[in-house]
Design a protein that fits this description.
Blueprint: E1 2-6, H1 19-28, E2 32-36, H2 43-46, E3 52-54, H3 60-63, E4 71-73, H4 85-89, E5 93-95, H5 98-117, H6 120-128, H7 134-139, E6 151-155, H8 159-170, E7 174-179, E8 190-195, H9 199-205, E9 208-211, H10 225-230, E10 236-239, H11 248-256, E11 262-265, E12 285-287, H12 298-315
Helix pairs in contact: 5-8
Length: about 325
Amino acid sequence: MLKLIITLRHRFDLWNAPGWFAERLRRDFSGLSVVDLRGYEGIEQQIPDADIAIAWSLRPEQFRLAKKLRWIHSTAAAVHQLMFPELIASHVVLTNAREVHGPVVAEHVMALIFALAKRIPRAVRLQHKHSWGQREMWESRPRPREVAGATLGLIGLGSIGRAVCRSASSLGMKVIAAREHPEKEIPTGIQQVFSSSQIDEVLALSDYVVLCAPVTLSTQGLMNEDRFAKMKPGACLINVSRGPLIDESALIDALRSRRIGGAALDVFAIEPLPAESPLWDFDNLLITPHTAGLTEKIWERQYALYTENLRRFLAGQPLLGLVDKQKGY
């Protein structure tokens, strides 16, 4: 009998597998032994004879105990916490849940674009002051503007980027993108694809820049002082990937000097964002507390994806959401 261990523990309860997840697996896969650890306590005793694991993070010393492990599935899209040398060099297959999170995060991106374009955060501040700020909203910069006809630059063209493209192009936005392999098939709605070495060109052309690339050695600090200088004056930056893609000190300078029109961040280098962070106080920055992927449907979708992959694994078929461990995504 194959053994599956579930080892997920997060301070935010939605990211933890609900109790029914393991129970349903036991019911639907009678030949599978399912151990739900509800965290990492006891993992040293359970992982040595485990064949499969559901986890978004393992320590190298825990992984070294896993003598039978063949497949790890992460219920997150990002897998940088699993990218240590022992796992990368191993024959253990790694999959992630990028297709679960992509459509939901894309909706959040579009909400942020509309909020920035129509200056909704400024309107909310005026409302709190009981101030009819029509003249102020028009005369300050950037002015409220139309989304249709604006250029959206995607940095990364995975599941989130493709979903954002579908929504943005249907609204009449011009969508361009930069990705590591521009020679791959271009998704419908993308008007031009640049290589990763041409990100500066994407920045120079875009009214809205959306970061949806994975965290790798080459993407950490991607948006630095030089890159902010390449953005169009008045353009806005949106990050729904991971905080390390942005040099936060460079972002602070760009916001303070009004070098860019504004930004919307769902992710940060340190989470929760410390109360003393200067980012809280910028009126040209919209903060959402890592809520882009939140939905009541998330674990039903996780279960559908995971059980499809489990059936494929048991049948020796290719898995969905396969991660290239050498690339880190």
